[in-house]
Model the fold of this input.
Amino acid sequence: MITRFLLNSLGGKVWIVVGILLAVAILVPASNLLLPVGHPLRVPNYMVPLLGKYLTYAMLALALDLVWGYVGILSLGHAAFFALGGYAMGMYLMRQIGDRGVYSHPVLPDFMVFSNWTELPWYWHGFDQFWFAALMVMLVPGLLAFVFGWLAFRSRVTGVYLSIITQALTYALMLAFFRNEMGFGGNNGLTDFRDILGFPIQAASTRATLFAATCVLLAITFVICAAITKSKLGKVMIAVRDAESRTRFIGYRPEYVKLFAFTVSAVIAGIAGALYVPQVGIINPGEFSPANSIEVVVWAAVGGRGTLIGPIIGAVLVNYAKTWFTSAYPELWLFALGGLFVAVTLLLPKGIVGTWNDFWAGRRDHKAARIAAAAEDEPPPPPPPAARQSQEAKPEPASKNTGARRSGPEPQPAE
Done:
């Protein structure tokens, strides 16, 4: 039933994107692991986790597009959900170090031993199991988003006020995680990871597997978001975005629609953060920075919000530009980012994908109008030969004033 729904409701473009992501999940690891060093088509070792990082950012932008592009919630705090998912995965990776740390403590991470902690905090228990960490990756951001959204949406906080509150949320979490007594590594965060699921995290095969897993999960979350937006619920989400008051007056509860989309978006952002940490090798409170949330908005705006594929493209393009600028002209990156956002706002208000869709829609409409106009100017086509012959063979009808002609000679007048 679910498979039939996905095949019937989702368009061909969705499956094209899924096919591209799955192809990338196969080709990039194969190129890195199978081709020899120096081959022109080989993806170098450093590029695999870098591309994986871009894809985690793409998943984060996709999560934001679900609430901003389809419900109209401009969240400036999605970096909080991303960082919480990252910390959950980082706690699991720290527990995997065991007695191989600097202080060789079998239970406590090195930063706790250095800070004179004597026992493991209660909220660290269970993170030595991957299934528990994976559950927390989704549960913690989802629960936070549910509680926050329940309070905010029921109070009908909207617009710029909601954006400011979400920004305040991520800033408060950043300040809290900076404190050493919180037990999350303070300013340094969590790092020096060794293993994931028993495999060395620095090995090329492990990094290739993490990259492939990121591609697959990005494809799955893309299909989930497309299924939501193509469903009846997706139509209600768009109605809430465009006319919330009218949607409420016809019987819907916009706060519940917003709460659902916000919670799902937070879960996706948490998964993105969990995939980010093992590929980058560190998670610290800087990931909570409000500036990171604003960058996510730029990615979605550049790609085109309300398109799903647009934020993915925008995240990859902008972060590739960031990598190039910060290495070639590091002092100019922030100016370039600000100029890019202003240029997109003024010249491409619908983003790359939105502008492209409008261009092709305009071309189709123009072509259809031209064909319709040409059809009106053409003379009617001649009848087919069979119809023309039947018309020629048909006798003309007799006149009303002419009687039937008698056979035989005409009568002579009497003398």
